[in-house]
Write a structure and sequence with these properties.
Order of helices and strands: EEEEHEEEEHEHEHEHEEEHEHEE
CATH class of the largest domain: Alpha Beta
Radius of gyration: 19 Å
Distance between the termini: 21 Å
Length: 289
């Protein structure tokens, strides 16, 4: 498992009975987590000290209950600063476990830039721009694509907070599949691709995305916008049906014949400070040159 253990401003304090207790900067949140199916003993004092609690509804969805929590606040990861805000379906605008991938591809980008080479990165389903900011801070030129205008605006705010307002980032509100199809027709290529596809989603014009039905063909499509000697290809998955082995098979089938290199896939996780366990947070597949 790849573990995101480099955080100072974020911490999973405990996880038990379907929920996790987290510290985001100086604020504590309790949120449901489908992976937490164990019922270990809780420290009542720790769990009482919370600033927000997302309660899952038995009918689906849920709602926040707040206790002295600001509407927005910030946390840092190394040189990056992210703006947080609790919003619908329990999220805060950041997936901290992805820091383990930011570190991985940032080292690749920095090494290539140190050789005087330009690195063009395409970030698809780019959400609030954690990976975009990490890649730009490492020296890459980034094309950020997401179907939600609100998420793209949030990503721009994160770039400004991370002192990347002048970084070479191209911000696009677009359907990711249609964008890649247009890039193929234009003849544009990239040195690296990052994608964080949702299990289900809709594009700006109502385009439907179902990951199990479309991910393999989309990987195949994306290989056509890679340059002749690309650096890396990263896929993140929160869908339980896409186990690490499945990511490896898909990426190996489409990338190794044309580009060589290697594919490694693993679960990713966050350390739980209260008991020494690691909370599973999905899987990632990495191809590298």
């Amino acid at each position: 498992m790849w573990i995101a253990d480099g955080w100072r401003d974020y911490e999973v304090i405990d996880a038990s009975k379907g929920e996790k207790l987290e510290r985001w900067g100086k604020y504590r949140l309790v949120r449901p987590d489908p992976q937490v199916i164990w019922n270990t003993e809780r420290n009542p004092e720790e769990w009482r000290r919370k600033n927000g609690h997302y309660h899952r509804s038995k009918k689906g969805g849920g709602e926040w209950e707040f206790f002295d929590l600001p509407e927005k606040w910030q946390i840092q990861y190394k040189e990056l600063t992210f703006n947080l805000q609790p919003f619908s379906f329990k999220h805060t605008g950041l997936f901290p476990e992805q820091a383990v991938n930011w570190d991985w591809f940032s080292s690749i980008i920095k090494e290539e830039v140190s050789k005087g080479h330009e690195v063009k990165v395409l970030n698809l389903f780019a959400y609030t721009g954690g990976a975009t900011c990490a890649a730009a801070a490492a020296g890459a030129k980034v094309t950020h694509v997401d179907a939600s205008k609100g998420m793209v605006n949030w990503a721009k705010e994160n770039a400004v907070s991370s002192k990347l307002s002048d970084a070479p980032i191209r911000w696009l509100v677009d359907d990711c599949v249609k964008f890649v199809e247009r890039e193929i027709r234009r003849g544009n290529t990239y040195d690296a691709i990052i994608m964080d596809p949702p299990s289900y989603g809709r594009g700006p014009k109502g385009e439907v995305w179902k990951i199990e039905e479309q991910i393999y063909s989309f990987i195949k499509l994306c290989t056509r916008v890679l340059c002749r000697n690309p650096l890396f290809f990263l896929i993140n998955s929160y869908t339980t049906g896409l186990q690490p082995a499945v990511l490896t098979y898909m990426m190996s089938t489409e990338l190794l014949p044309d580009f060589g290199g290697k594919v490694v896939s693993e679960e990713i996780g966050l350390p739980v400070s209260g008991n020494g366990l690691v909370l599973p947070c999905g899987a990632s597949g990495r191809w590298s040159r």
